[in-house]
Amino acid sequence: MSTQVHAELTADQVEQISEDLDEPEWLTETRLDAFEALDDLDMPDVITTPGREWTNLDALDYETLVDPLDYAQEKDRVTAEGVDVLEWSEALAEHGDLIEEHFGSVVDPQRDFLTALSTALFSAGTVVYVPEGVDAEDVKVRTTMNSRSLFNYTLVIAEESSSVTILERQATGDDAKPVEEGRYYSGVVEAIAGENASIQYGALQNLSEETYNFQVKRGHTSRYSSVDWIEGNLGSRLTKTSVETRLLGDSSESQIVGAFFGHEDQHFDLGSRVWHEEENTTADLVTRGVLKDSARSVYEGVQDVGREAWNTSSYQRENTLMLSDESEADASPKLIINNHDTEASHSATVGQVDEEDLFYMTSRSIDEEVAKNLLVEGFFVPVLEEVAVDELRDDLEEKVATRLRE
Amino acid sequence: MSSDQDHLKETDTEKRFEFKKEENSAFQAEKGLDEETIRVISEDKDEPEWMLERRLRALEQFQEMPMPEDWPGAPDLSDVDVDEIVPYIRPDIETRGGAENWEDLPEEIQDTFDKLGIPEAEKNALSGVGAQYESEIVYQNMKEQWEDKGVIFCDMDKAVREHEDIVREYFMTKAVPPSDNKFAALHGAIWSGGSFVYVPEDTNVEMPVQAYFRMNSDGMGQFEHTLIVAEENSEVHYIEGCSAPKYSEFNLHSGGVEVFVKEGAHVQYSTVQNWSKNTYNLNTKRAIAEEDATMEWVSGSMGSKATMLYPSTILKGPGATDNHITIAMAGEGQNIDTGAKVYHNAPDTKSTIESKSISKDGGRTNYRGLVHIADGAENASTSVECDALMFDNDSTSDTMPYMEIQEQKVDVAHEATVGKIGDEDVFYLQSRGLDDDDAKQMIVAGFIEPLTEELPIEYAVEMNRLIELEMEGSLG
User: Fold this and answer.
1) Per the domain annotation, does B284 fall within a domain?
2) How far is A318 from B403, CA to CA, in rounded Å?
3) pTM of the model
């Protein structure tokens, strides 16, 4: 697979992207190193069981999907008072040292083939910098993809005792250049929360359904801090994401909330992972999803409690609702516990719309179709309740309603 | 090749092995397991040609298949030295796995036997000391009762000769083909001993069929094959192994169990494994359940250095049911990787998995399980529950379930909890006058009760006593 990309991709192109963005030399080198490493890197891990591969990434033909020098996109950035929300060149000029310090410190730029590809080729970059003590709500980043491929990078730094709420939307533009084979979207997010800082990062992915979508979001916490993620997945043809938090500070927390709704032949491979590496940390992983038509979902949740993570609390729930017999759902919630002073649990369910609930509602003279839709919308409520960003919640609700009634 | 076959025709097996040894020193690459060894085993057992062919095919698959290396957290199997296997499987070689005398057994095992209060004769039998033992008579009595009903219970080698048609149909063809995994293939090539149980239609074998006393009738029972065929509407409870530790110098145990549960039949298979702590215990166990049949697996894994055991059931007929109860306990240096696999391939099938694990003194337990619901298995329901208890901070407890759902009308639930032994529970018992150790033992006994209550009383008592011993730290 790596040779496929190399057929089109050259080091010159990587250098050109870096030059276009006025990048310092260290970053150009980092990109070139990632590019050189492609040959030796494997695809991100996918689960396989006897006779079944949960997601097949090898079938993707990156050669035809990736066009490294075409990165037409629009980006709207709405900043909040006291926060720097900067596009890449600007960020490098203003916070060059900070970026050099943190870039690649959370997500290994070469953690797998697709991440390295993203490191080498990213052309759209955003930095959110929250100075000490600043409380900021409603930072918004809207990415509209107009090209065949787009590589996106976001760095969030919240200094001591600050807080920030970020909402990111990813969509394909109405005027996007038509493609025959499909599009490729790749996004990497690194989030660093300083002591007593809190970051909530919500993302709503609604890319066009010929798009192959790969995303890694990962955060580091410090003492008393929290990194919370909200992940809404509605768009794309195939999605492979991993949302991760390393709890590196005493008494830090993370919540990972996911909602997905797949239809037609969409395939979502979604990962939620948390590592408890310090004392008194708490994690809560909640994902709910609905599948209709021949959509397929893969969920992997990992709660890893390290040897030194005394007094850990860790919870995970995943629920999938199947609306069609052609849909398929795979789930694997994992617990890896190395400290006995832990309270950990996980649960996962797969089922259909409850017959009795449906009967109750139809007996109250609600039309069956309407009743079913209400029940599906109700199914998402426990997840939506966890979403603190009103705009994201409303958006999700509306998109779920639309998809149900299409 | 032709000269090899000439040698095979000789009846003096001793001589043949001499030849083998020479060949080995000349060709290092052929050291260990090869076709010649398999032919000797098969001929010594006076097996029909088809069995030899199956063994050879399995050997070929074993040599081709990779080790299960990419399993997250799985035990390290690099110390399993298959090349050293030959003396333990060749029937013509004197050196066997077991110790010659009671006194030769490792002290910790002698100690455990004494503390369990197992009588001398049984001690010898169970620990693999190759002596004759009185239990053969007990077995003989049972056998007569069953024979009247048409039940067949005999050792597997004998079954191959005397019940050839049945064995030929079921032996590693449908449930556990050698291609299933590398160690199933190894087992298919070198299996020896084990039990064959055949229960005719509408027959209920009331007394649990026990392999308890029989494990050592053929070698060490390290590569034993168990085949159970329960015809329509029959019922049988089969018990394998025992809670007393078993010792062998060779460090690999690779058994195979195949269970066929016909329409409306009910089979319970219970096993308590307590291999000595140098053993790699890599078994493949699978049942196929037809319409309205019920399969129950009850497994306790106490011993071994590393265990990889995932009893599986294919729910092939509508209305079939599968229940698993598994308990794992890992102490110092142990990696007990167990679980269950269920394939729902028909409508209205049900399964439950209840897994309990205890890890202490740096041991690792892992639940690794798979539930697969195939397209068309309407109204399938499954519930998986995993509870883990951790005693200290050096230990590890993992839970890795996999669920694959291809059908809409299903009810799938998985739940797992991990925690330490409750301080409040311990405090309560202490305030009632129990000391710390007794309190913890009592809590553990309660924790594993779902297993012990499925076992006949003598096993249950032994299990509890054994866990007490493990917890006292009086054993290594």
Assistant:
1) yes
2) 12
3) 0.86
